[in-house]
Write a structure and sequence with these properties.
The protein has helices at about 10-15, 20-30, 40-50, 60-70, 75-80, 80-90, 95-115, 120-130, 140-160, 170-185, 190-200, 210-220, 230-235, 240-245, 245-255, 270-275, 290-300, 305-310, 315-330, and strands at about 275-280, 280-285. By secondary structure, it is mainly alpha-helical. Mean pLDDT is about 85; it is low at about 5-10, about 15 and about 155-170.
């Protein structure tokens, strides 16, 4: 949808015929004049058409000049095409806009109910409006689910903020708890899934025990080479996979001269090296031992010095000692 389509050739003709007021009227009713941020811009152009600046624009180039000037405005630059199209439809074709909004609200209500959420009329209006203004022209499927979850989380937190502390009893608190359990077990889950757990716990759809068991079950699937019985033992003992593997972090931290807690499980080094896959049979996997990771913390698989290790005092000292030994051998020092 192009805003210039509404500036038909009759405008230039009116200006050429000296009917400036007619063109000014067209601009006054142009859809962009309903945008608060553009009203001063439109008023300026009406004044320009009326010759208040001393020189009236050329009727044969005025439409192109207006469009170029419109597209240079801050509001235009800060919005995407789908957003501008939605605004033009809302203002210029309210009947179509209203019907599209009705359909969008029905879709959002259906998806929200499937997720277990209840939305007020105001909630539906806000989500439908935002959806039709989205860069895709409307949220669908997983994208819509994510927006509903995000919206409900924000609304719930704002609603309870004045009366309830942001603690373990809040949705945010539940999110942090389950995200922490997943992270402690080196489990890969999306934020959306964690938000879902938080909401289901708050709505009494799932118990804390059920959610944590689900996280451990994901770990069993992600690290299929670890015996399920071991996972169950960790779960029953209140320990995690990261507890079991902590000696690896201690070994790496010792090489890099940092504390074990400074070795992040989600670092690129850990992602690349924690799990070993047999080159002859990629289906055979295991966690690397502390000794293996210690070696890789010093030298990469290709034999080059690990970047972190290369910055340590221990490495620099060894390098200096080796250089001095060479110099001594050649009688330089």
């Amino acid at each position: 949808m192009d805003s210039q389509a509404h500036l038909d050739s009759g405008i230039a003709a009116a200006l050429a015929a000296g009917e400036e007021d007619e063109w000014g009227n067209v601009l006054e009713y142009h859809w962009a004049n309903e945008i608060t941020e553009l009203q001063d811009f439109i008023a300026g152009w009406i004044a320009k058409i009326n010759g208040e600046g001393g020189t009236k624009p050329d009727p044969y180039t005025v439409e192109a000049l207006f469009q170029a000037d419109l597209e240079s405005q801050e509001w235009w630059q800060d919005t995407h095409q789908a957003y501008r199209d939605a605004e033009q439809q809302r203002i210029s074709d309210n009947g179509t806009w209203t019907e599209n909004l009705r359909i969008e609200k029905a879709d959002i209500k259906r998806r929200a109910e499937a997720l277990g959420y209840s939305l007020t009329a105001a909630d539906l209006q806000t989500l439908a409006f935002n959806s039709l203004h989205a860069v895709t022209g409307g949220w669908v499927d997983d994208a819509l689910d994510r927006q509903i979850i995000k919206f409900k989380t924000t609304v719930d937190e704002v609603t309870t903020a004045s009366s309830a502390p942001m603690g373990v009893g809040s949705i945010r608190g539940s999110f942090d708890t389950y995200q922490g359990v997943a992270a402690a077990n080196l489990v890969t889950v999306t934020d959306d899934r964690v938000w879902g757990w938080a909401h289901k716990f708050q709505n009494n759809e799932l118990t804390d025990e059920q959610i944590k068991q689900e996280i451990y079950d994901i770990g069993k699937n992600q690290y299929g080479f670890v015996d399920e019985e071991r996972w169950d033992r960790w779960r029953n003992a209140g320990t995690t996979l990261s507890d079991h593997l902590n000696n690896r972090r201690v070994a790496i931290g010792g090489v890099w001269e940092i504390g074990a807690n400074e070795v992040n499980w989600d670092s690129q080094f850990m992602q690349d090296n924690l799990v070993y896959s047999d080159p002859n049979d990629p289906t055979k996997e295991r966690f690397r031992t502390s000794k293996e990771l210690k070696q890789l913390a010093m030298r990469n698989a290709d034999g080059s010095v690990n970047e972190r290790y290369g910055k340590t005092l221990g490495y620099k000292t060894k390098k200096a000692d080796f250089r001095n030994m060479i110099y001594q051998g050649f009688g330089v020092i």
